[in-house]
Amino acid sequence: MGVMRDGHRQDVRDAIAVYAVVALGSVVGGVLRALASSVSLAIWGPGFPVGTLIVNVVGSLIIGFYATLTGPDGRVFASPRQRLLVMAGFCGGFTTFSTFSLETVMLMQSGELLVAAANVAVSVVTWLAAVWLGHMLATRLNRLKGSRP
Amino acid sequence: MYHLLLVCLGGLLGGVARFLVSGLVARTVGETFPWGTMVVNISGSFVIGILAAVVQAHDLPALWAFAGTGFLGCYTTVSSFSLQTLALAREGEWVRAGGNVLLSVAVCLGAVALGLAASSAFAGGAG
């Protein structure tokens, strides 16, 4: 009975740790995204949503790289919790689909149909290219000979 | 600085909500197609449409920092979408990969438009 209760407590602690790790990564990613969008607004102005594009491309690159580097054939060991922190937490919080959608619809509604279409095309192509590039870079690293930690 | 704190708080809740909802959907309908991420992105896009109309009409930058940039920004995700699309493509599931891209983009844009329209219709009816 005591053993069962200890087991249950451990499960609860593990569950809390999982959510805490996702929350922590999300907060860091979200704050960096907010800063990036202010900086890009100051540099490029409001004509084209450059800030959202940059965070989504960088986040896709990081997740592609990290997922492969720490995956089953990966060179670097990361615990499930570390993977959650970086992937579900940081990358999930840093990138945003809702802001991308909103900015695109706003462009459409202000009559900038061509700019809206360009935003969709450029975004989707660069997101997918970035995640692929990250994956390929990590695959190269994984194949390098040498000491595995 | 105050707004950045609101982004933190919203982001904390948004990240946890995404993890909960996408996990729940994935466990319910299976993981052969990334429905979890899609449900999160579509629902987040709908709500950001409603929110954007409210924030614009009433000039509420603090609400936008908390709920728009913080919560919905962290609730929705492009990184998981990209990674899952890549995984489908690498498995040779080109139709599913393409379907994920087209469906996500089309429905999320539609959801934002619907949210904006719903919000202004409601505001118009109330006013």
From TrEMBL, chain B:
Record text on activity regulation: Na(+) is not transported, but it plays an essential structural role and its presence is essential for fluoride channel function.
NCBIfam families hit by this protein: crcB (TIGR00494), PRK14203.1 (NF010799)
Coiled-coil segments on the chain, per record: none
Protein name listed in UniProt: Fluoride-specific ion channel FluC
Gene this chain is encoded by: crcB
Membrane topology: Multi-pass membrane protein
Keyword match tRNA-binding: no
Organism from which the protein derives: Pseudaminobacter soli (ex Zhang et al. 2022)
Role: Fluoride-specific ion channel. Important for reducing fluoride concentration in the cell, thus reducing its toxicity.
